[in-house]
Amino acid sequence: MIGAPGVFREICLWVLLGVVLNSQGWEVRAMQLGVDGPHFTLDSKPEFLLGISYYGALGASREIIERDLDDLRRHGFNWLRVWATWDAFNNDVSAVDGEGRPREPFWGRLQWLVAECDRRSMVVDVTLARGNGKAAAGRLPTLAAHRRALETLITELKPYRNWYLDLANERNVRDERFVSFAELRQLRDLARQLDPRRLVTASDGGDISRGDLREYLRTAQVDFICPHRGRTADLPALTEAKSREYRVWMKELGRVVPVHYQEPFRRGYTPQHWEPPADAFATDYRGARAGGAAGWCFHNGDQKDMAEGKPRRSFDLRQRRLFEQLDAEELAFLSSLRPMSSRQGAEEKPGEDQPESGRLRVIIETDAGGDPDDEQSLVRFLLYANEWDVEGIICNRPKARDGENLNPERTGLGIMQRFIRAYGECHPNLIKHDARYPKPEDLFRRTVSGYADSDDGVKLILSAVDSPDPRPVWFMNWGTDDGSDPSSLKRALDRVLKDRGPARYATFKRRLRLSGDDQFGDHTTKTAPPFPLWVDTLRPEMNGRRWYHRFSVLTANAGGFDLRRDVLTGHGPLGALYPNNTGPGQKEGDTMMFLYLVPTGMNDLEQPAWGSWAGRYGRNQNHKDRPYYWANQEDAWQGTTTRENTLGRWAVHLQNDFKARLDWCVTDFSAANHPPTPRLQESLRRMVAPGAKVRLDASGSTDPDHDRLQFAWIFYPEIGNYRGPLPTLDGAATAQASFVAPDVDSAQAIHLILAVTDQGTPPLTRYRRVIVTVDPKAEAVVYPVPRTARNASISDSALTATNPSPLVAGQRVTVK
I want to staple 590 with a disulfide (CB 3.0 to 4.6 A). Which of 98, 118, 377, 539 is the partner? Predict the structure, then answer.
């Protein structure tokens, strides 16, 4: 019996936030964290874990955590480390007590945090710490208590697959933390009995010796290793070599598992000896990635030489959130961090053939100085430069075309530099709206000539592709027509094939993705291997219409867009440079190349047929055996079925977005509009049985300007393989919609697009894609109710689950 009403109310609040129980269903996302050789996987796809220390999270308010999680996702982080046994600054926020049993209200907070991270596709490290013979809070004094704590965590959090367990923090340190390998094996065996799929590890206080590595792999049989590297200035430069050494040792020992740098050095630890600067964090992170590690943590904590250890950072989050406690060097690292949370490729060598997630690396090659439509596209491209890491801009036309091009600058490079100078005048205003806009001097440095008598473009490409950054490079050729010199990418590929040979040429080529024109000769059509992906946003011609000519027709007046009012007048020097002497007036023939890459929440770059602001793309029949796509798809929309609908249905949205960014050039944050953030309460990928009621809930969506939101749930039948009558979609114009899964005789996928539009000026739209697979083979499962919910009032004990394994979606569930 809990005597304090306030405590009781808080427990109820956190339980209700963490576990959604009602008569209609209990929905758990169940994102799947796994291990595949040296890599982590999320939903079966290789993923690098980029994380942050968040030790005292259970002492923070929900508002603090949600704001920090928003910032973490914006910076590319996809996991965080939380302790189930944590006591700092006389504040015990442990989720389990000294006997290993649930401890409220912190136990309910842990459940909510795991669920909230699951909803955001984030991994949670839950850490335990031994305190042999120590009765102090935040430690487990005996092996028996340690076992009970493990049982509590695994049993009660079993429905969630987005967390792993650090069995014993720095278990090798010879103080009260010490846990022997024999005890570690006992804990690991207990974990396997309770949940065979739960990933477990045990962190090591220092670099792991070869002998101890054998014990971790063979005796304790952890799923991955977590060495806590030392905290001296020389170590970041050695991280790559150390990571490779672990891989060599593991191969020799016959078992390769991920190397997870769960706790590197931090600021404030021993400031009198070494206070790591921003570039030390960057060096360590890059070394981990280049060396083949599977995860890395941006570690932080209290300032030991300051009064009361302030700032306390993640060690104490009761009063201030983490991002308000970071210092200038830590913030500098974050601002320079390219969120390289790319999924790891299947190959052992890091940096090869790895599909991307997070910010993209892009290079454009433009023949600015020819058809002025390149300069039109440049205006829009620069306004989206905050969305990518712009690795380079290559100008391949040495002399502007007389008569057609009226720019006063008469070389391609000079024209591009003129646009960057105009962007630079807008930059102080643009960063008020998004701090990720690159500095104009950085763009200047990365803008080079691609003239035949210069190697600057070739060198830029070689440097970008050869860099240790594991993300591929998206290359966009905007044209190399009459008067332009040969493509710098073709020249770079010629050189690599000649100088490095076929094997290294293949490695180089696998790190490229193409969006746009093909000016690369045999490298595209004949020389193996093919590019991993080429999306031709210019072709084919259908019904006598060139696809790249359709952009103007579909967008020029969409939503009342007016070129003179919305671009040329009153929107700063960049908008004023937009040329208006093309036919048609807003041609922008190259814009679809990068609209394909804009992260709107709808597009998946590896699925060209799924749709984007650049339309939909199907296989190019001229290259049947290669992953090459072009604009040959059609959509049914507003009573017609045409190719134009694949872009036209989004034309108002993309033009409003362009207008808003032009406003950013001249307005403060409060005077402009910014896009909303759609958030779903459920998984974006779900499996249900025929007849199951599928619930869609976007009520957690937010808007940075606090505008009211409009919702539209849209079936996209052209994409999935379900071809029967579309179900009735109840609540299609509300935040909460539902439909009954249709009858099928085999597993079939149904795609829905959620479009969330704010009521700002102009109204802005972002999306989420939901894929529901209806499978008649789904079976009933038994679902364990968390301890904190077992005394709750449940009006229907046969709950309906709507998410993937460990629940079989759409099936009735027996509650224990």
Answer: 377
